[in-house]
Amino acid sequence: MAWIVLGIAVITEVCWALSLKWAATQGSWASASVPIALNFANMGLLAVAMRSLPAGTAYAVWTGLGAVGVAIMGTVLLGERLNSVQISFIALIIVGVAGTKFFATT
Q1: Where are the domains of the chain?
Q2: CA-to-CA distance for 16 and 10, rounded, in angstroms?
């Protein structure tokens, strides 16, 4: 169950980071509240996941997959570009996260 909660936390992490870019283009207090709310949800979900998972494992998976998700969604939604070297390093992050999950004790 903790891994599912952590997965949801990763999704909210990606949404949070993308909402920062969106809020910056809107320039209103109302739009600024979206990333704030997502940050609270994000941190709460991460904290719940860390009740059952080692902190280092949960944090490594959360940050790694969050970074990969933002990079991918930035290209899909925002038209940002990734070159082949960046894609290679993103693949290394995925390998690292998979290894972290695979060798986790919980």
Answers
A1: 2-102
A2: 10
Q: Is 80 helix (H, G, I), strand (E, B) or coil?
A: coil
- pLDDT tens for 53-73 read 999 899 999 999 999 999 999
CA distance 24 to 99: 35
Spell 64-89 as b/e; 16+ CB within 10 A means b.
Answer: bbbbbbbbeebeeeeeeeeeeeeeee
Can you tell me the distance from the alpha carbon of 92 to that of 36, in angstroms, rounded to the nearest whole number? 30
Lowest mean per-residue pLDDT among 25-29, 52-56, 79-83, 92-96:
25-29
Give the distance from CA 44 to its chain's centroid. 14
Task: Indicate the pLDDT class of residue 106, thresholds 50, 70 and 90.
Answer: low
Residue 25 tokens read as: 């283009």
Q: Which of 55, 59, 21 is nearest to 38 (CA)?
A: 21
pLDDT band at 3 (very low <50, low <70, confident <90, very high): very high
